[in-house]
Amino acid sequence: MILSVCIPTYNRLPELKINLKFLIQEVLSNYNDDVEIIISDNYSTDGTYEYINTLANQYPFIISHTNPSNIGMVPNWKKSISLARGKFVWLLGSDDIVIPGKFSLLKDAIYKYPEVCLFLLNNKNWNPEDEEFVNFDENIFIEAETHIKNSNDEYVPMISRLLGKREDQFTPIYLSVMKKADWLNALDLYDLDKPVFSTLANCAPQAVYIPEQMFNKEGYYINTPLVLASYNVGWKRYFSLYYCYYLVYLHGIWLKAGGDRLVVNESLKSLINNKLKRHHYRDLFVYNRDNLKYISFIEYLKLVYQYPKTYSNIAYIFLLNFIYLVKKYTKNLKYKG
Predict the structure, then answer these.
(1) Which of 22, 151, 282, 322 has a 20 to 30 A CA-CA distance from 35?
(2) Which domain range does residue 246 map to?
């Protein structure tokens, strides 16, 4: 068994049905008893239990598991991985879809490079409405935008050499195919006693683990997109925190782990200069201000002080805070009056 595709899920039956429709087709077209699909249901109430058990009875490569109660998101991720028998684990969101005809690229790469410890994937971006899973249009596989353009498949003797392909490197769970032990060790970094997104490890634990523990190991990048990734995420209220702070902080981790400084700095510069950043600043400092408690501004400035764009961003932040305080003070005056 070379590969276990692990799908944790909770009350996402329409999304899961589309996910499995295309994944099962891919496994059947390449099947020789070397791939399994593991679905771990976190005590859903929408019919998921009955659906996945029906599939498990129909296909020998599907393993279905349902927790006796909702054990939480990351424990359910770990449960799905703990059931895996494959050498490598692909942790796939139940709302992410394997692009038809591309699954064999991953299998072929695993067979060709058995000593590789991380297979990094590319994806297409999709921001669907809920009804688009019910009435799924396969044209989206063609129309969706590819995330990384103008690159090639690449074997590297050190995973650190894969830096620079994208600013959110290693953070999407569905793009890192790793050995079972590495996935479990990565998820151990998630502190269940702390709130979700209170640290980078409680946002994307594998993004911390890979630089700290795997940068000197062999890696392989597959440029052809394998996943249609849903960007209609359940953690939207944290996205500005993730984008404005944790991705910056992640670049600092890359540097500490021995990443090439020129490559990391160029990636960080691109992140700082992104025109969308002001939109996310506005969200963070106006609409989701409670997330500010997770930010170390000193750590942030240590990483970005060298980029001229930083200072216009800081001025914009001060302006947002000034407007917020004026509105808050004016509101209090009206209330007292």
Answers:
(1) 151
(2) 237-337
